[in-house]
Amino acid sequence: MDDIPIPIPKNPTRLMDQLRAFIRSKRLSYKTEKVYCFWILRYIRFHDRQHPNNLTVDHVNQFLSSLVLQENVSVNTQKTALNALAFLYNQFLSKPLEGVEFTPSSKQRHIPTVFSHQEAMSIINELSGIYKLIVSLMYGSGLRVMESVRLRVQDVDFSNGCLIVREAKGNYWRRTLLPSSLIDGLQNQVNFVLAQHQKDLADGCGSVYLPFALERKYPNASTSSGWQYLFPAPHYSIDPRSNIKRRHHLGEQSVQRAVKAAIKRVGILKKAGCHTFRHSFATNLLRNGTDIRAIQEMLGHRDISTTQIYTHVVGLHERGVTSPLDFSNSNSYQ
């Protein structure tokens, strides 16, 4: 249950506990909380555990430059660290971070690895059961692995032919494609979850975690069928937030392990994993002529420039460009 926030005191006194409480008051995702806390701790330890209130923008510049000069991090990693420190000063400490000047990373952003349709399907067909269905959704709907395992029963909108992604990155909701080829499999999965939920209720369990304050606002929602996870864990566990025995969703790591093993079995040598299916969803839609704005909406990108990276993935031969080595004999040079 690596997506469950760690407990913090009701009246926190330590800096990091106070920071975590503030982040949760802003309703940021737990992944964002972990990333921000990681970089802020790195920053504090870099400066011999001094309180950030006693540090200046020069200390921020020193830390960000060190990430490049000593650790050779990428542009995105350095930006993530800067975002964490900007949040620390601008929002948490209410001390606007001005005059930031640091050595920028020269490592360029890489073009994402993608599967061809044949490669993606060969991996999916190497899987079975619940893992095959989850990976099919990652490729067929453009879901992140986190979004896939967190789907609820009510998120599958069979009547409108779409999926509702509620607990997405940044806590933004969106709709995306529901592949028609998965409808029977998803309906069978829903039926399984509903039957298992009835058994859980009979066992005195059957409640599920609800985000934010929904459990207090709707006391009966946690035991309703619609809020149950579409891909539940095989066993009960104790929720550390409430000490309630309940069934969580399937873990991300188990899906990642299954995908890694399947990629190895089919002999694909690309550096790939679960997220490659999301990249492949976008790229193969683009190859098929889908409007990039529609792809942006389905992926949940706030900025179109993030989606445009996939235009660099589509091969030159798909734009009508041919290598001179492949010219026909009649057009070949002498």
Count of strand segments: 5
Helix/strand/pairing category:
mainly alpha
CATH secondary-structure class of the largest domain: Mainly Alpha
**DSSP helical segment count:** 13
Strand order in the sheet with the most strands: 1-2-3
Uncertain regions spanning at least 5 consecutive residues = none
Integer average pLDDT: 88
Q: Biggest sheet: strands, sense, closure? A: 3 strands, antiparallel
Any idea how many domains?
A: 2
Helix and strand run: HHHHHHHEEEHHEEHHHH
Overall spatial form: flat
Describe the structure.
The chain is mainly alpha-helical. It has two domains: about 15-90, Tyrosine recombinase, N-terminal domain (DNA polymerase, domain 1); about 110-315, hpI Integrase, Chain A. A three-stranded antiparallel beta sheet has the order 1-2-3. It has a two-stranded antiparallel ribbon with strand order 4-5. It has 13 helices and five strands. The chain has helices at about 15-25, 30-45, 55-70, 75-90, 115-125, 130-140, 145-150, 185-200, 215, 250-265, 275-285, 290-300, 305; strands at about 155, 160-165, 175, 235-240, 245.
